[in-house]
Every structure is written in structure tokens, then in C-alpha cells.
Design brief:
This protein is α+β, with helices and mostly antiparallel strands. Helix content is 37%, strand content 13%. It is built from 17 helices and twelve strands. The chain has helices spanning 2-25, 50-53, 80-89, 120-124, 130-151, 162-178, 195-198, 203-212, 231-244, 262-267, 270-275, 310-313, 317-327, 347-354, 437-456, 468-489, 492-495, and strands spanning 109-110, 245-246, 250-254, 281-288, 294-301, 336-340, 358-364, 391-396, 399-405, 409-414, 422-427, 431-436. The strands form three sheets. It has an eight-stranded mixed sheet with strand order 5-4-3-6-7-10-9-8, sandwiched between helices. Helix 9 runs parallel beside helix 16 (468-489). The chain is elongated and about 85 Å long. Residues 96-106 have a biased composition (Basic and acidic residues). Residues 47-59 have a biased composition (Low complexity). Pfam families: DDE_Tnp_1_7 (PF13843).
């Protein structure tokens, strides 16, 4: 037994490091532009979470590419003049021209004015109304009936009601406040117990509902999608997001931070480690960079066996380009500006989206990005590092490739910002560092999303089921609650309250029946 415990202790640090590595990979950390230490603490362009600081001065992939002696050119390699001519022949030129920003006249924000008396539950039900909850009641009872016809009667089962379903969801959501691994801890009498919640429903009744809970009980003959048990709910949720909120012009494509808390991973027992399974799906979002509202969700299953399956495309630009196209399919013709990370940024994708009047600004990595069609001279590092704030730019049509230096090279591809417009990165001690406008815009908008993830990921539902469709469902519910809270904070109802509430605390967790 002691040996098993020792094995768990040895595995826990490895899992912790894996979790931290994933955390850092999802963020533009405080060191993305080569800053480190306390000097970056007050910079509004940087995330200052503890997890971000752990990446130290090597968090940027490109920053690790320290300029060194250039390797000798291979035999037969073209000289600099020939390379310049080849790039010019491909349309890339160092001659820059100004271009106006994409025109955007829409007014972003909530589409419906909620009364000052509206409760947090009213905002949540903009996305999960009673008709959706009633369908869960019907599907759960249908599944329970069919299950018992096949495996034998369950004398302790009684059909669930709408009130019980709301209480059931309330119990699950309560784990986002207590951060307990199991919702059954409410009835345990231990540290996470909650007597006021435990009195609303017995543990036995809760476990019965949990056993039979379904959003879609049975697969139809025409259904082939692997998420058929939750796809109707995701579609309904998307319709709610679309009808309740108009996003700002600037948006971000990324993976939200939905993995387990690294501190919990480092301290969990061997039994808990065995129970944890690697997620079988990838969840991506398109997010409003001025409010944090998640506009669109895209779920990609790892079990896909075709050429578009996640296993076939894992960590490859093809997968991320496919995800980006799916997330932007409802954004055409609106002149949105989309910020992307290195895995999505590519010339082919940006040109394709530009034809749909969707403009982009993305961080580029020679190792992680699809660099097809980009000038090689902009992807290599010079033998002598340029001074901080210097940059090189080449332009092709409306597309600009920027190489900006700040303790290392950082590359950006954009068709949303003029290459001749200048911006600044503000540093507390040394003042302003000049940069192209696209660099300043990228830093500002991505920093907000980093801070959003740092804050709101702490309120994701902690319940970890084994079934993939249930994992997707609870993540979607968490996103719906965070979106409801954003609308709540933007409404008159928030300002008339005598005190402000944290995310989820607007929902009366002392009485799950209020759900």
C-alpha cells in the first residue's frame, strides 16, 4: 500500500507539470514580449497570474530562438539578392502603404434590456430556458424507462420533475463554488458538506437522477454525429448566445482553460489519479475581446477516424485552420477583426477569411504555424540582434508580415491594421517601447482574454463525469453561466443591488430549487 502511495506521489508532480504546461500554452503570458520579473506586474498588456509567471523568460517559442551565428548556406542555396527577387516575384515587398481599418458601425452589447428587478436566474434562462429543461426531464424519464425494461425494474426510481431537474443542476453548479471533486461531498458531513443544500434533496434521489440523466435519450436512425446526446443542447445554447448579445469588432479564437486545477492534481490520491481520464475532445471558442462574452463554441472529438479527426490532425495547423473556419462561419460580411495564436495563424487561412470580410491579426511562429507562402527572409533571425523596438515589415496586398524585436523576435501576420501606423508597449520602469499598431492591438486584446481565463476558469463546474457527452454538457453549462454573469454585470439589475456578487454567486446556491 505504501508503495502505491509512493507511486502516486511520484506521478503527481509530472501531472502538475503537464497541467502547467497546458495552462501556459493556452495563454499569452506576461513574458510574451520578453518582459519578466516585477517590472511587468503593472503592465496592462500582460497577464500576471502565478501560472504565467512560472513560465519565466522562456515562455515565448520565438524568444527561445536566440539569434546566433548564422549557419552556412547549403550548397546551391540562392544568395540574398536572388531570395529577394523570389520574394518580390511572390508579391512580397518592403514598400509599405497605408490602408484604412475595416469599417465597423455595429453597436456591440446585449440585445435585450432586462428590467432592474431581473434576477441572475433570469439571465441564465436567456440561454437555458424552461423548455430546454423540460426536454431534459422528458429525455431522462424516457431513458430510465428503457433502461429498466432492458436491465430490470428499479423500485427506488420515480419520474423526475422540472423542479427536481432544476435542483439537480443547482447541485452540480454548486461544485464551481466549493471546488470539490465530487458533488456527493455535500451530503458527506466533511469539509465540503452543506446542510442547507443537503436538505433540499436526499443523496439517494440525487444519485438516481444522476444515473439516468440524459439530454437526448436515443440515437435517431439519421444521426451519425458522435455528440448526438448533447448536440441539440449546444445548438440551443448557440441560438441563445446569438440572440442575446452582439459582439464588438475585435474577437479572439482560442481554447478556454477547462482543465483540472494543477494544485488539485498535485495533491490528489492514487485512486483519484486512476479515475482521471484524458479528455476525448477539444473545445474551442470565439470570444468577444472587450467583454469576455463567448460568442461561439466548437467541440471536436478525438475519436474521429477520418482525415479530419483530431488524432490525425493533432497539433497540426490543418486541425486549427479547420476549427477557425468552423468558428467563423457565422461571422462573414461583418468586418470583424479576429486575433489568433501561432497554431491558427497562416497566410492561406487569412486570405480565405478576408474574402468573407473577416480580418485577422495573429502571432506567428516558424515552428508552430503554417508558413506556406511567407517570405523566408522574414522567418530567419539576423546574426546581430536588432535593438529593442525595431521592426521589419513586408507587405503583400493587404497582408503585412511584421518582425518586431524585444529581447527576441516576435512575428505577426495581419490584414486588419496598417503597417505604417505606430503604437507603443508601455513598460513601467523603462517607459514606452515603439512597435507597429498591430503589435499593440494584439497585446491589449489577448491580455484581456488571459485575465478572463485566469478569473472565470476558477468557476467552472468541478464535476468530472467519465462520459464525453456529459463532460461537454457541463463545460457548456459553465460557459452559459459565465455569459449570463457578463450580461448581468452590464445590466441595470447589477447596479441596483446593494452589494456586488462574484460569478455564480448571483445564483441562489442555498436553494437549488431556485434554478
Amino acid at each position: 500500500m505504501a508503495e502505491g502511495g509512493g507511486g502516486a506521489r511520484r506521478r503527481a508532480p509530472a501531472l502538475l507539470e503537464a497541467a502547467r504546461a497546458r495552462y501556459e500554452s493556452l495563454h499569452i503570458s506576461d513574458d510574451v514580449f520578453g518582459e519578466s520579473g516585477p517590472d511587468s506586474g503593472g503592465n496592462p498588456f500582460y497577464s500576471t497570474s502565478a501560472a504565467s509567471h512560472s513560465s519565466s523568460a522562456a515562455s515565448s517559442d520565438d524568444e527561445r530562438e536566440r539569434p546566433g551565428p548564422p549557419p552556412p548556406p547549403p550548397p546551391g542555396a540562392p544568395d540574398a539578392q536572388e531570395a529577394e527577387e523570389d520574394e518580390a516575384g511572390a508579391g512580397w515587398s518592403a514598400t509599405l502603404r497605408d490602408r484604412p481599418p475595416p469599417r465597423f458601425e455595429d453597436t456591440g452589447g446585449p440585445t435585450r434590456k432586462m428590467p432592474p428587478s431581473a434576477s441572475a436566474m433570469d439571465f441564465f434562462q436567456l440561454f437555458v430556458p424552461d423548455n430546454v429543461l423540460k426536454n431534459m426531464v422528458v429525455q431522462t424519464n424516457m431513458y430510465a424507462k428503457k433502461f429498466q425494461e432492458r436491465f430490470g425494474s428499479d423500485g427506488a426510481w420515480a419520474e423526475v420533475t422540472l423542479t427536481e431537474m432544476k435542483a439537480f443542476l443547482g447541485y452540480m453548479i454548486s461544485t464551481s463554488i466549493s471546488h470539490c471533486e465530487s458533488v456527493l461531498s455535500i451530503w458527506s458531513g466533511g469539509f465540503y458538506s452543506n446542510r442547507s443544500l443537503a436538505l433540499v434533496m436526499s443523496q439517494a434521489r440525487f444519485e438516481k437522477i444522476l444515473k439516468y440523466f440524459h439530454v437526448v435519450a436515443f440515437r435517431s436512425s439519421q444521426t451519425t454525429h458522435g455528440l448526438y446526446k448533447v448536440q441539440p443542447f449546444l445548438d440551443s445554447l448557440q441560438n441563445g448566445f446569438d440572440s442575446a448579445f452582439r459582439p464588438s469588432q475585435t474577437q479572439v479564437l482560442h481554447e478556454p482553460l477547462i482543465d483540472e486545477d494543477p494544485v488539485f492534481i498535485a495533491t490528489c490520491t492514487e485512486r483519484e489519479l486512476r479515475k482521471r481520464k484524458k479528455r476525448k475532445f477539444s473545445l474551442w471558442v470565439r470570444q468577444c475581446s472587450s467583454t469576455g462574452f463567448i460568442i461561439q463554441i466548437y467541440v471536436h472529438l478525438k475519436e474521429g477516424g477520418g482525415p479530419d479527426g483530431l488524432d490525425a490532425l493533432k497539433n497540426k495547423p490543418q486541425l486549427h485552420s479547420m476549427v477557425a473556419r468552423s468558428l467563423c462561419r457565422n461571422a462573414a460580411g461583418k468586418n470583424y477583426i479576429i486575433f489568433t495564436g501561432p497554431s491558427i495563424t497562416s497566410l492561406t487561412l487569412f486570405e480565405e477569411l478576408e474574402k468573407q470580410e473577416i480580418y485577422c491579426c495573429g502571432l506567428l511562429s516558424p515552428r508552430k504555424s503554417d508558413c506556406t507562402g511567407l517570405p523566408p527572409s522574414m522567418l530567419s533571425n539576423p546574426a546581430t540582434p536588432p535593438a529593442r523596438g525595431q521592426h521589419r515589415i513586408k507587405m503583400k496586398g493587404n497582408m503585412s508580415l511584421i518582425c518586431w524585436y524585444n529581447k527576441g523576435p516576435f512575428r505577426f501576420l495581419t490584414n486588419a491594421y496598417s503597417p505604417v501606423q505606430q503604437g507603443v508597449i508601455i513598460k513601467r520602469k523603462t517607459g514606452e517601447i515603439p512597435c507597429p499598431l498591430a503589435v499593440e492591438a494584439f497585446a491589449a486584446h489577448l491580455s484581456y482574454i488571459c485575465k478572463y481565463d485566469d478569473k472565470y476558469s476558477k468557476y467552472f463546474i468541478s464535476h468530472k463525469p467519465n462520459k464525453t457527452w456529459q463532460q461537454v454538457f457541463w463545460f457548456a453549462i459553465s460557459i452559459a453561466i459565465n455569459n449570463a454573469y457578463i450580461l448581468y454585470k452590464m445590466s441595470d439589475a447589477y447596479h441596483v443591488k446593494s452589494h456586488h456578487v462574484e460569478p455564480h454567486r448571483g445564483f441562489n446556491l442555498n436553494s437549488p430549487h431556485d434554478y
